[in-house]
Amino acid sequence: MNRLHAKEYQEAGITDPDLIASYEVCRELNASHGKTYYLATLLLPPGKRPYVHALYGFARYADEIVDDLDSTLSDQEKADWLKTWGEAFMADVQSGESTDPVCRAVVHTVRRWDIPLDLFDAFLHSMTMDLTVTEYKTFDDLYEYVYGSAAVIGLQMLPILEPTDPKAFECAKDLGVAFQLANFIRDVNEDLDRGRVYLPLDELERFGVTRADLEKRELTENIKAALRHQIDRVRRLDEQSRAGIDMLHPSSRDCINAARILYCGIANKVEEIDFEVFKKRARVSPRTKFWVAFPAWRHARKARRTFGSGHVQGLNSTLS
Questions:
Q1: pLDDT one digit per residue (tens) for the chain, 320 residues
Q2: Quick one: DSSP state of residue 118?
């Protein structure tokens, strides 16, 4: 473990070697699969980063099982595994300990920050939906999935970010949904490979587009118009969420604002490739990430010096 990571555990008050090993598994999942998210996490005070890594690790581990196209497991076997794993996690939270290499850190995080368990129930429900639902007729139908797959991630993180106003919860939901919808727009082609469409069918029909049209993977003016409509929603949610950033502890704001700019910026990149989501992948360039992250890092350091890092070792610190 390098000096930076050791400092994170020291400032978080996490000393148990087995617990640190579990947090490291989660951190590596974040670093490997969520590079933009990981970059934003580095803007948090060091003592809060392990907890965010744990939440990401939990979500990514489950998502990888569900989405593994090379798996020999059937969808029903994946659903059974997810149910068993989820029930074991819930029991572990109640007991306060876990032997699972990922869940050990997540259990500690949940108890440390008193994160509501219903958020994890909603997440596991959405992961199960991915094994049984391949399309959504309306946005309301899609929202059931998106709430559990994305909005709850923001809500799980919120206690760590230390909100100062209850209104921050609605803003966190909006931002999580915006992130997910931006990914759906970018990943139309990839999702079709998995047999799924995450764009509401009735909204596609409004622009003269059917699922069969998408499956042809040929960009048309109608498909462009339908994607533009989805991008407009991402931008509305992005705008609605911004007020919530000022409701967080000052040391948390730069992390979330950087993530907001980079994730919602995916929508801009889709426009820049003229909506050609079937043959290209919209990406936020490393140069853009640098120009967002570097000033945010400087500002975050100043905020920590001025306002402190929040209650990094406050609640339930004896659990570590």
A1: 788 789 999 999 999 999 999 999 999 999 988 888 899 999 999 999 999 999 999 999 998 888 875 678 888 999 999 999 999 999 999 999 999 999 999 999 999 999 999 999 999 999 999 999 999 999 999 999 999 999 999 999 999 999 999 999 999 999 999 999 999 999 999 999 999 999 999 999 999 999 999 999 999 999 999 999 999 999 999 999 999 999 999 999 999 999 999 999 999 999 999 999 999 999 999 899 999 999 999 999 999 999 999 987 544 333 33
A2: H
Start-to-end Cα distance in the chain = 18
157 with 53, same domain? no
Residues 312, 308: Cα–Cα separation, whole Å: 10
Structural domains of the chain, count: 2
For residue 106, give the H/E element and its range. Answer: helix 103-113
Sign (positive or negative) of CA dihedral 36, 179, 135, 58: positive
Bridge partners, residue 248, by sequence: 163
284: domain CATH number is: 1.10.600.10
Residues 1, 87: one domain? yes
> 102, 132, 162: which is the final residue of a domain?
132
Using DSSP, state whether 163 is helix, strand or coil. strand
Q: Are 276 and 189 in contact (CB under 8 A)?
A: no
d(CA 320, CA 309): 19
- Written as one letter, the residue type at 34 is G
What is the residue range of 71's domain? 1-132
Place of tokens 């640190």: 20
Q: How far apart are CA 161 and CA 166, in angstroms?
A: 13
In a domain, 141, yes or no: no
Strand, coil or helix: 194: coil
Return the structure tokens found at 46: 């060091």
